[in-house]
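Folds abound. A case:
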Amino acid sequence: MNTIPSYDAEFLENRRYLELQVQLGHLRDQRPDGARTDTDADGASEVGAGGTIEPVGPKIEIYDAERLARRLGHGDGFVGDPAEANNDEDAGQARQVRLWTKMHADERGPWRRLVVPDEAMIARVAGLNAICPHFGEITAWIVRAANLAQATGTPLRLDPAVVVGPPGTGKTFYARKLAEAMGVPFEVIAMNLMTDRGSAFSGLTPVWRASGPGKVAKLLIEGSHACPLIVIDEIEKASPINPRETPENVLHSLLERENAARFVDEFVDLPIRADHIFWFATANSLDPLPTSIVDRMIVFTIEPKPAEMLAIQRSIFHEANLRVGQSFAEPGAELFRGTASHNPRTLSRLWDIAMGFACEAGRRHLVAADIRGAEQVLLAGREGARRPIGFIRQATKGERGGE
């Protein structure tokens, strides 16, 4: 008996969806009011958060709604008044049932959106070269995949990727901009803060006092898409208390598409489709990672040149300036060189504070003293504040007002 390979079956499923949309369009045109039906409520694009146009694609079921209903109907988990829970397990089970009830009552049901790229989305992704030129190889890879998806009318799919490069080169900044360009939810999971077996990914069973769903399940259940972009920041820096229980075990499942399609969060305790997630890991080095993890990802190495880092600095300044109505003139190259030692995360805060100093001095342009003042605020109380970084030294009142 011949069977259709899973990838071909999915392709045909998506093609049938798109053909159905065309047929529904013809039927809608024949209706007197030309109104849309519930089934074809999704068009080619829609306005998302912040007024951006997001491409809209088919939807998939991320969990089995009937199985969820059976769980609630059969009274699995805690049954009774949650206020009467008298131990950690009862309280955890009560929270679990509340989550199931919330999922069951969600008017969207288990359906979450995938992204079929359109020309506008592809242009936004390609535009990342202007603000993050040293990520050009990664951007080109994504644009090729997006062009393929657009040409075939299928959802965008990207293999897990890891970007290797020195600290402060804008890896997480790029990932955030990429999520904005694709119009998908964005989440960062910091591996250097993880001391257990990976509960941030997999959740904790109700027997634990701090039990709850992991970030993966939470993002899929509460979000609009089945394909959020999740950044695993500094993937090589996990430091579990028990070396035999590491986050790498859950990553083996999540980074393998076939296993991720049946991912079970320990708290939700239902299979969830996590196979469409866009995984974007960052690392300073791959040496600490086992080969089994590295083999699951496409590896990109970046070594930005000074001019490329300047492009990131300018982009972060323009973001800060946009937040205040573009009230400030763009600084000169000398001022940008003075902030080159700061990573993008620090820069995003530094510019706001520096603008405050400039405004206090009655100026609409930034000077070195504003940067020094902002650095002092950011580094106050840290060990690093005792040694000069960038422009740091005590700025005088005369400098603030007279430069």
